[in-house]
Amino acid sequence: MFVAPVNTESLLAQAQAETLYLNLIEQINKDFNLANEGIDFPLSISPDELKIQLHEKIYRMIQYKFAEYLNLLYIIDVPENEIKQLDGSDLVILAEQVAFLILKREWQKVWFRNYYK
Questions:
Q1: What's the pTM?
Q2: Residues 6+ apart with CB under 8 A from 98
Q3: How far is Cα 113 from Cα 17, in angstroms, rounded to an integer?
Q4: Among candidate residues 104, 98, 88, the one with its CA nearest the CA of residue 14
Q5: Confidence band of 2 (pLDDT split at 50, 70, 90)
Q6: Which of 3, 21, 58, 113 could be a cystine partner for 15, CB 3.0 to 4.6 Å?
Q7: Among residues 84, 87, 97, which one has the least CA distance to residue 58?
Q8: Cβ-based neighbour number of residue 105 at 10 Å
């Protein structure tokens, strides 16, 4: 049964433990490209580096490309109610929280696809 991770570190650890980390990177790359936000994480990227780079990308999108940011959330299918619950007073923290929600949704897609194949 799918259990949603509580933070980024546990999500990435679970993805590695289930040998689905590469699938997660591929899914992130695919959905960002669908949203015309070219991002190409190499499959060799470490979990820590993935977390940092994704956070930076989301932060820049919120600041400079807000319409594209909203489109990305729509394409990835991040639950709107979860986004609305976030406190937007600090952009750095907001970007980190949104990056986790994106990772969580992408992980959910990868996990279900693997579990029900």
A1: 0.94
A2: 58, 62, 73, 78, 83, 86
A3: 16
A4: 104
A5: confident
A6: 21
A7: 97
A8: 19
Residue found by looking up tokens 């709107």 in the block? 80
Query: What Å distances lie between residue 36 and 40, 57, 68, 100, 108, CA to CA?
Result: 12, 13, 8, 20, 22
User: Please, how many CA atoms are within 13 Å of residue 21, restricted to the half-sphere of its CB?
Assistant: 21
* Residue 96 near residue 88, CB atoms below 8 Å: no
Round to whole Å and give the CA distance between 54 and 39: 9
- Listed in sequence order, the residues at least 6 apart from 76 whose beta carbon sits closer than 8 Å to its beta carbon are 31, 35, 102, 105, 106
- Average pLDDT score over residue span 6-26: 94
Residues 42-75 have pLDDT tens digits of 999 999 999 999 999 999 999 999 999 999 999 9
Res. 88 pLDDT band, cuts 50 70 90 = confident
- Contact in structure between 5 and 96 (CB atoms under 8 Å): no
Residue 63 exposed, middle or buried by CB count within 10 Å (0-12, 13-18, 19+): exposed
Q: How far apart are the C-alpha atoms of 103 and 13, rounded to whole Å? A: 12
